[in-house]
């Protein structure tokens, strides 16, 4: 099958969307498909991503990445440029795909100022489907701190725009039943819930606890007897960091913070604030910065549990990764993460924005090693179905169904 993917982002930017996109095209290559993927050019961020060239051109057999001239987006990302859509059309005409798949069409719409892929698909009588990945409406207040009334009005306007954009596509895929219900309630009429998210289960399950792991790999000594709490993801306000920082001030009244190590994997504009505030509470704070996806399995395996305070995930890839490594997760009872966490069985859910409840859950896992082990065993049992083989096979089946419907 010849598949064209128009994506809002790709590696070297590290987040759930880009990492899953990389492994998806890798698996499509192994299955023998041809893929042409469009994404922003990250060379202007070479100081942040010195390996950006590794993710451009022919990265796998049958997979070509075309980087479109880009414009700044946040502090660590890029958007495709307004005048670059002609490149997309030219390359699509050369490639002659059987189907076009668009990731985050609303973000691409406000970059291209047109519906990505649709006109070409209609002219060539091929399907054009999309993926709902990020509920940007939930992030409105994080990035536009305007008066409440104005924010509400703008959200209503943008919601109508987003619904209109998604309804232009033949199908809108979502990977969470919670998100599916949410976008149906918004008015998106072509939604389909299916498992198309995966990860390399074997790679995570084959990771091993090794002596002196932290000292050998990250020059962090004396962690053997500490409870290692790991955070993964962008260091941005939308990931719940203000809530987390405020809560840890209260946590020090419940547990001895010298008995824990706070390990933070990721980067972003809040890095210095996070470092400054946490190091006032304990010296055992370690910010590793951006880490290659290849190193995540061993980091998780050599940690005791994973914490996320983000209430806005459509699925939460890091939750699945932690489970595959055999460690429990503490997360808010909100968004797509609740789909996989069974409270008290493979992790703990806290009441959103409730610092007291959050601290109670943290205290429980910090102090009860037997509970951590038991939940970790349960966690590994809960993620077998999320292999990339299964996820990509589901996606290919949907593509084939859409192609068949056209003809």
CATH homology group of the largest domain = Glycogen Phosphorylase B
CATH fold group of the largest domain = Rossmann fold
Shape descriptor reads globular
Low-confidence stretches: none
Structure description:
With 407 residues, this protein is α/β, with parallel strands linked by helices. The chain has 16 helices and 16 strands. It has an eight-stranded mixed β-sheet, sandwiched between helices. A hairpin with a 3-residue loop joins strand 5 and strand 6. The model has no long low-confidence stretch (mean pLDDT 92).
Quick synopsis:
The protein is an alpha/beta fold and 407 residues long. The chain is built from 16 helices and 16 strands.
Question: What features would you highlight for this structure?
Answer:
407 residues; alpha/beta; Rossmann fold; 2 domains; eight-stranded mixed beta sheet; six-stranded parallel beta sheet; 16 helices; 16 strands; globular
């Amino acid at each position: 099958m010849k598949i064209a993917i128009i994506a809002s982002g790709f590696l070297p930017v590290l987040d759930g969307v880009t990492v899953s996109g990389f492994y998806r095209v890798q698996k499509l290559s192994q299955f023998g498909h041809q893929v042409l993927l469009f994404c922003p050019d990250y060379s202007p961020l070479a100081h942040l991503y010195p390996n950006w060239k590794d993710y451009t051109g022919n990265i796998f057999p049958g997979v070509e990445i075309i980087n479109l001239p880009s414009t700044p987006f946040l502090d660590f990302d890029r958007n495709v440029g307004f005048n670059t859509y002609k490149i997309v059309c030219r390359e699509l005409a050369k490639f002659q795909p059987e189907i076009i798949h668009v990731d985050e069409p609303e973000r691409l719409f406000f970059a291209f100022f047109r519906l990505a892929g649709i006109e070409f698909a209609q002219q060539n009588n091929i399907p054009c489907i999309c993926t709902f990945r990020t509920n940007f409406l939930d992030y409105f207040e994080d990035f536009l701190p305007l008066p409440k009334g104005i924010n509400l009005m703008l959200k209503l306007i943008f919601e109508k725009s987003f619904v209109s954009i998604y309804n232009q596509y033949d199908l809108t895929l979502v990977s969470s039943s919670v998100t599916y219900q949410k976008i149906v309630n918004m008015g998106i009429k072509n939604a389909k819930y299916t498992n198309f998210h995966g990860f390399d289960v074997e790679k995570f399950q084959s990771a091993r606890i090794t002596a002196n792991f932290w000292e050998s790999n990250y020059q962090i000594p004396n962690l053997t007897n500490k409870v290692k709490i790991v955070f993964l993801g962008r260091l941005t306000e939308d990931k719940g960091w203000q809530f987390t920082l405020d809560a840890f001030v209260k946590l020090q009244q419940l547990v001895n913070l010298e008995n824990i190590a706070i390990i933070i994997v990721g980067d972003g504009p809040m890095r210095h604030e996070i470092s400054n505030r946490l190091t006032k509470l304990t010296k055992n704070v370690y910010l590793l910065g951006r880490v290659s996806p290849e190193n995540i399995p061993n980091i998780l395996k050599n940690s005791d549990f994973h914490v996320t305070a983000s209430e806005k995930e459509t699925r939460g890839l890091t939750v699945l990764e932690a489970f595959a490594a055999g460690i429990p997760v503490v997360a808010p009872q909100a968004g797509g993460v609740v789909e996989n966490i069974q409270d008290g069985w493979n992790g703990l859910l806290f009441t959103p924005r409730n610092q007291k409840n959050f601290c109670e859950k943290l205290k429980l896992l910090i102090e009860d090693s037997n509970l951590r082990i038991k939940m970790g065993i349960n966690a590994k049992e809960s993620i077998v179905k999320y292999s990339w083989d299964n996820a990509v096979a589901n996606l290919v089946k949907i593509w084939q169904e859409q192609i068949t419907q056209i003809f």
